[in-house]
Structures are given as structure tokens and as C-alpha cells.
Amino acid sequence: xxxxxxxxxxxxxxxxxxxxxxxxxxxxxxxxxxxxxxxxxxxxxxxxxxxxxxxxxxxxxxxxxxxxxxxxxxxxxxxxxxxxxxxxxxxxxxxxxxxxxxxxxxxxxxxxxxxxxxxxxxxxxxxxxxxxxxxxxxxxxxxxxxxxxxxxxxxxxxxxxxxxxxxxxxxxxxxxxxxxxxxxxxxxxxxxxxxxxxxxxxxxxxxxxxxxxxxxxxxxxxxxxxxxxxx
Length: 231
What we know:
about 230 residues, alpha/beta, BirA Bifunctional Protein, domain 2
């Protein structure tokens, strides 16, 4: 029986465009699935951080009508748009947002996609708690919210993943110092009548992105019983 590997290589890709980062994820995922096809080696796990320039991405189950800008308007605002192979609907990535792409072989942890999504949410919920905010789940809506069960729900973290042979890619987008006006051009996650927020908007001050990543790292390692190794 192949030994489970709970070490996760962590790399901060800095500021990088969406499509090259997506291609990089696909490459790493394929390398891991190739190892699995041989069946003789322990598989590696990765976690990439990145900060994208402004981009809207549409998931497999999303509807293009949830993008409220024409191609011409997108170009004039210098915003990219990509249809992706992740789950979920439309969302925004951009400056001031902590985006995390875990590429994990879930057979090193547990083969349960539902549990995996709930664990990603819990990482963010525990991180928010350190800032005095109560992150919550909203029934049938993946992601992390504030005041989820009130008349004023606000989404602070979006999630969307893809798996192949139990290897994950894509991940979460956590609004830290994000310019929230970008969300005015979409119906975020296809959900009508609910707003988005950020740490900055809630706490009325800029928040250190590196500090947020450190907190995410801590909670991720605890919840996944993993060890992070910096690349």
C-alpha cells in the first residue's frame, strides 16, 4: 500500500495573469495524475498563492448572462474574461485578493469532495475569527459569508474547484483589500440579491496580505493535519 503523503509544497507566485496560472495548475495536476497511473510512488501536494490582475472567470455551471459587461467594455476597462473548468458560476479575481490554489491528491487525505469544500471554508472561517469576524456558510451556496442568515448577507470568500482522479485544482478567492466595485459588473456566483465584502470593508482599514496568508497557512495545516514546506 502506498504511504499517504501529508506534506504540502507551498509557493507564492506573486502577481500573475490568470491564464498562465491556470495552465501551470493543469501541468502540475497532470504530473500528479501521471504518478498515480504508475501506482508506485507517493504523490506530492502543492498549494499556490497568487494575486491576479482584474479578471472575471466563469465556472462550468455558470451562465454568461451573469457577466454584465460587453467584450468592448471589458477591453476598455482592461479586465480579462475566461471560461474555466472549475465548478461554480462567475466571480472576480484582482488586486488585494488572496487567491489560493491547492493541488492536493485527496487520496493523501480523504476521498470526499464535499468534505474538502467544507474544510476550505473552515480555513477561512477560522482566519476571519482571528479578525473578530464571524464567518458562516449559507445553505446550498458554497463559500464563506458574513451575516449569512440575516437580511444583509455578504460574501467574503468564493470557492470553486475541479478534480481529476481525486487531484484538486482551482480553489478560493478571499477578499482582503479588494476593490469591491469590480463586483458591480457581474452577478457574483450567480446569486441575486446578496452583496460582497472584504476584510478592509468590514474592519475599515488595510490588512496585511502576508499576515492573512500566515493565518491561512496555520489553519490549513491544522485542519488537514498537514505540513507545509516552502518552495
